[in-house]
Specification:
Blueprint: E1 5-8, E2 14-19, E3 25-29, E4 34-38, E5 44-48, E6 54-59, E7 65-69, E8 73-78, E9 81-87, E10 95-99, E11 106-110, E12 122-127, E13 132-137, E14 141-142, E15 145-146, E16 149-155, E17 161-168, E18 171-176, E19 182-187, E20 192-200, E21 203-204, E22 215-218, E23 225-231, E24 237-242, E25 246-250, E26 256-261, E27 267-273, E28 279-284, E29 289-294
Antiparallel strand pairs: 1-29, 2-3, 3-4, 4-5, 6-7, 7-10, 8-9, 10-11, 12-13, 13-16, 14-15, 16-17, 18-19, 19-20, 20-21, 20-22, 23-24, 24-25, 25-26, 27-28, 28-29
């Protein structure tokens, strides 16, 4: 059994952790509409307050934080867990934001692109070695209906936003293989881990799978849902798994390497820090905690 250490508690549905060089972790608190820094001693400080529903977070090549803002949820308490509950009453759309970590200034980078639709609920983000970034749009859920969305690619300077994969079934976590040749995306309600062959910056092989670009890599049995993901240095994909509570570690060949359990049904994301990138930080969102443990293998050094 893995032993988890609570780094910080009292958070309002934390997600999108980013391990910083100074030993702190910057993450989002979706229910509070803010970006928060967790210091090594467990204390917190507010980095920015973009409002809405800040979700995925990544450090860009310009030293700025890039945030997928899903526009917000309604919330309810379920047996002591804070749980998102449909589209926020004051929802006005999703967007990609660029945030200055020093001043907290928030700039809206994208709301719409050249693809004839609007962003609904941007969720998770990863930069590639070309300076652009991939992100998922999870969409929003309303009574009796849910958005049909896709996977996008954008330039960090605000000059390009395009929908690369459509449709995608409620895509959530996103990541790249160590060589950048494979894009991974986790679908929440289908609980599928999908793989896409990258053919160039912002391009994937649209004919790779029977139904289009995506190839189903892994899908577990049972009552589970996939959330965000991280990639290990050796190529394994670590998918936060809701319901079963933990991290599903999947090989590039689609085999379950191990399942690392947590005690929060809403385990939502993972990142790695420390000099050897073997300190795993995991967001336990339902109980409002950031926890850590010594990971068996190093996480991938992210492009920034």
């Amino acid at each position: 059994m893995v032993e988890w250490t609570t780094v910080a508690s009292g958070l309002r549905f934390p997600e999108g952790p980013v391990a910083m060089a100074d030993g702190s972790v910057v993450l989002v608190e979706i229910a509070a509409g803010r970006i928060t820094r967790i210091l090594p001693d467990g204390s917190t400080e507010t980095v920015a307050e973009p409002g809405g529903g800040p979700n995925g977070l990544a450090m860009g090549p310009d030293g700025m934080l890039y945030c997928c803002n899903n526009g917000g949820f309604n919330w309810r308490d379920a047996s002591g867990l804070l749980v998102p509950h449909g589209q926020a009453d004051d929802y006005s759309g999703g967007q990609i934001e660029r945030i200055d970590p020093r001043t907290g200034a928030v700039e809206v980078l994208y709301r719409d692109g050249d693809f004839g639709c609007s962003l609904k609920g941007p969720n998770d983000i990863v930069f590639d070695r070309h300076g652009g970034f991939w992100f998922t749009d999870h969409g929003k859920t309303r009574p009796r209906e849910r958005d049909v969305t896709g996977i996008f690619y954008a330039h960090a300077d605000g000059g390009l936003l395009k929908e690369v994969v459509f449709p995608s079934e409620n895509p959530n976590g996103i990541g790249l293989s160590p060589d950048g040749a494979t894009l991974y995306a986790a679908e929440t309600y289908t609980c599928r881990l999908m793989a896409f062959r990258v053919t160039g910056p912002g391009e994937v092989d649209q004919t790779a799978g029977l139904g289009g670009a995506g190839i189903p890599l892994y899908r577990p049995a049972g009552y589970k849902f996939f959330d965000s993901l991280g990639v290990e240095e050796g190529g394994n994909i670590c998918v936060a798994t809701i319901g079963e509570s933990g991290i599903s570690v999947v090989s590039p060949a689609g085999e379950l390497v191990e399942f690392v359990a947590t005690d929060d049904p809403f385990t939502t994301n993972i990142c790695w820090g420390g000099a050897d990138r073997r300190t795993a930080y995991v967001t336990c969102s339902g109980t409002g905690r950031l926890v850590s443990t010594r990971w068996s293998r190093p996480g991938l050094e992210l492009v920034s």
